[in-house]
Amino acid sequence: MTTIRRDLVSATVNRVCFSTDFNIHTDTHKRYKFRKQTILADKLLTNDEKAEAIKYLDETYDRNKVLNNSGTKRICENCNKECLATLYCEYCVRNYLQENFKNWSSGNDDIDDLIQKCQMESLGPANIVEWIPYSNLDNVKYLTKGGFSDIYTANWINGYYREWDSKKQQLKRLGIHKVVLKKLENVESANKNWFEEAKSHLTISNKRASIARCFGLTQDILSGNYMIVMMKMDMDLRKYLQVNYNRLTWKEKFRIAYEIINALYFVHKEEAIHRDLHSGNILYSQFNDTCVAILMWEISSGYSPFINYECYDCDLVMIIIDGIRPEIVPGTPLEYKNLMEECWDADPSNRPDIKELDKRMEKIYLEYQSIPNELYQSKVKNNFEIKNKTNYTSSSLHKSKLYQFENLPEPKNATEVELEAFHSKSYDFINIPDDIDDYANSNNQKIDEISKISSIFKDDYDVYNNPNLHPEEQNELKIPDGLFLNIF
Length: 488
Hints:
Elements: H1 6-18, H2 28-41, H3 47-68, E1 74-75, E2 82-83, H4 90-99, H5 109-119, E3 130-131, E4 137-145, E5 150-156, E6 161-165, E7 170-173, E8 177-183, H6 193-205, E9 214-219, E10 226-231, H7 237-244, H8 250-269, E11 272-274, H9 290-301, H10 314-321, H11 334-343, H12 354-367, H13 380-383, H14 416-424, E12 477-479
Parallel strand pairs: 3-9, 11-12
Antiparallel strand pairs: 1-2, 4-5, 5-8, 6-7, 8-10, 9-10
Protein name: Kinase-like domain-containing protein
Keywords: Kinase, Transferase
Organism: Rhizophagus clarus
């Protein structure tokens, strides 16, 4: 067997998926057929590489069929049930997992019940959450302090389930695999917020491929802390934009924006709400969708917003209150610009809800699929420059903090004249009142509730989006920080 060039296979699959015209291939079955035919016709891949690429398409197709309960069914030769998957039988996989319940336990009945429930709803071999004994994790190292918890890296000795062996009727593991561990806080707390956080991670990522994989839970044998075991991603969106921005066309930017928004839409459909959305940690939240607008702007420009300001300084608070927003990149297509501006409107009633946002971004994405790249190739680097640009890769920009600012004026939308005046000068011209310290209790004080300034946006966009714009009426499960959206 010849060596498989996995980077080429991955790049080819991504290219084929990206080139799929959703206006022509209108459902998952038509898209699968088109992509498979395109792979088979590819002249760069060897036959073995084509088989590898098609296997990936088959896995995704099987997963989507089971998730949506749609497609042609077949009779499983083992259990004789009508199943949708072709590489495996979803019923056989679940039966195998159920038979194994007696062989493991976390020591906590609630956790056992949660994991067992997730396993009985598994869509395929590569999407199974499980209890992972801490002894199966090697080389555990502290990585960083996240917005609300400590993050570690580790090697999972056996790795996750990868495929179903139809002959042996058992699941096969990948082998040693690098993972991220996210410590759950306050496990002794009576309110069990830690358990709700774990439940959010497991149930959402169990269903949606656009959410970065959550493999399951483990428990530090020394501290007793429970930890979420997650897939280690290569880079976040901010880093991806830094590395690839000069090669991105508008069509590719629209794809990124659409896939993020679409993933958030599905999260909302699951009646769960994200708590922390920013380009270093793609997450979503309740109360307003200005955070999405800022992500859209960052995707269009390749920069972080207001990078001349320190995080959460009072100058930044006041210019946002006064309606100042990042400068629109020259050449930004009108539909994208309008949607972005609606999302960061100072009046929440003028902002689209997540359902409308998803629908309109999908329309923009699909309409530009048939337009040649060269007509909309980004010229941003040639005619757009952030004044006094600083290095925005600092880790401080990737951490969420909550601050309370009191007695702030009502937010407003800036006029075109005000916006032009701001963007035509250096960012240090804003006049801040002498008594600005009265607005802030402390620049280092964390609070439990999002303050009024959060309804605008903050550098890390730690804000909350509610399609009904009435956060006090929301009872859905909140997804805390750390649930990543997988858009690539």
